[in-house]
Amino acid sequence: MDVLKIKGNNSLTGEFKASGAKNAITKMLVASLISKKRCIFSNVPNITEVQVTIDLCREIGMEAQWDKETQTLEVITKELKTTYIPQRFSGANRIPILMIGALLGRTDKDIVVPTVGGCNIGKRPVTFHIDALRALGAEVEYRDRKIDGAYFAQSPNGLKGTIIELPYPSVGATENIILAASRAKGVTILKNAATEPEVIDLILFLQKLGINIYFDLNRTIYIHETTQFNEVKHHVITDRIEAASIGMSAISTKGRVFVKGIRQEHMITFLNKIREIRGGFQVYNTGIEFFYKEPLKGGVQIETSVHPGFMTDWQQPFVVVLTQAKGTSIVHETVYENRFGYTKILNEMGADIESFSQCLGGHSCRFAHQNYNHSVIVRGPTKLTGHKIAIPDLRAGFAYVLAALISPEESEISNLFYLDRGYESLETKLSLLGADIQRVPAKEPVTLVT
């Protein structure tokens, strides 16, 4: 098993090409199962999350050819070999539940998918998914089994369009409903839908595939029944999480990095917060340059939210940035209830971060009065020191990498499979920017954190 050895205090400089978005390509691979047509994706990131999703789709009949050098992935699912997703995919990621929406219109057999997985950052209930699929006419139930539970779904009488209003604009539920509604009779109207750029990219892909789908005001999506499909070529949007991560690294290490390929409209809220703390950025037609221009100023308030709010996946590295900003800042997490566990290690590295169960943002959120530590106060600037760290989840993992890049002492980071899920060749790309970072075999057994 490998570990990262990082010795910080080097300014990152140069150009960084942003990879394709993990949260876009994985969903579009599942969406391609709706039809029997060939789909060709470009700008596909070479990360384990994509490989796991391909393996999952191959299990049921997808043929896939992935040219990692050209970042091109060609897929086609002519026939379904099975509608049973094996239990080995249980907990692998959040993709299996989307199989229900994608397959309901292609088969009248039982669709069996394992339970939802992914990072341990809080509950990921699928109630919104199940209630919506049932409203479309599907029969869905959860059954306990010998080792783990699974969801069983079918639509014996076919799916029928309806009006669905989500209690919360969940990205996964929005995507699942769209996939199922694409083959439902008539028109489905989805209210209070998620509007993240990755959801929009999915919609653009589906429109190319042949589906009549469009947005209206107030988070409303209309999806029409579709029976005729087309072959598709689609360029995956760049990853706004990776881009922000590198931007924060440039500013925190007092460097200057041009992030190629990222789009300003996907980063508006993030860029505003960068400006609030006196970080520098310049927008160009081909990307955004991030740079340190003066001592960082804290005293900001950040509240994570659904798009177009401040993205929950930007929160962890931003907290690290705030440890280097003068003043006291507040961060209120409203998307996941258990996303500040990583701050314990940051405090051991020298940060001054205090967590609270109260809603310290401008508004109370759905975790109010539930004893979840979902708000923090960050005081800075503080000097960070090297540490030996086992990564607990993907985004916390990059927060630790950023903290190590700031510290002048060496840090050792393990559980790299989390980072590999969402960051392509991270150590290589950071090295090219001037980071002192190496991926080496562990000299002693590593304690896994899952």
Could you explain how this protein is built, in words?
This protein has helices spanning 22-31, 48-59, 98-103, 127-135, 171-181, 197-209, 240-252, 268-276, 312-322, 343-348, 394-406, 417-422, 426-432; strands spanning 2-7, 13-17, 39-42, 63-67, 72-76, 111-114, 139-143, 150-154, 163-165, 187-191, 213-216, 220-224, 232-235, 256-260, 280-284, 287-291, 301-303, 327-332, 352-356, 375-380, 388-390, 410-414, 436-441. Strand 15 (280-284) and strand 16 (287-291) form a beta hairpin. It has 13 helices and 23 strands. A four-stranded mixed beta sheet has the order 21-22-1-23, with helices on one face. Strands 2-14-16-15 form a four-stranded mixed beta sheet. The protein starts with a strand and ends in a 9-residue tail after the last strand. Helix 1 (22-31) packs parallel to helix 2 (48-59) and helix 9 packs parallel to helix 11. It folds into two domains: 2-19 and 238-441, Enolpyruvate transferase domain (UDP-n-acetylglucosamine1-carboxyvinyl-transferase, Chain, Alpha-beta prism); 22-224, UDP-n-acetylglucosamine1-carboxyvinyl-transferase, Chain. Helix content is 28%, strand content 24%. By secondary structure, the protein is α+β, with helices and mostly antiparallel strands.
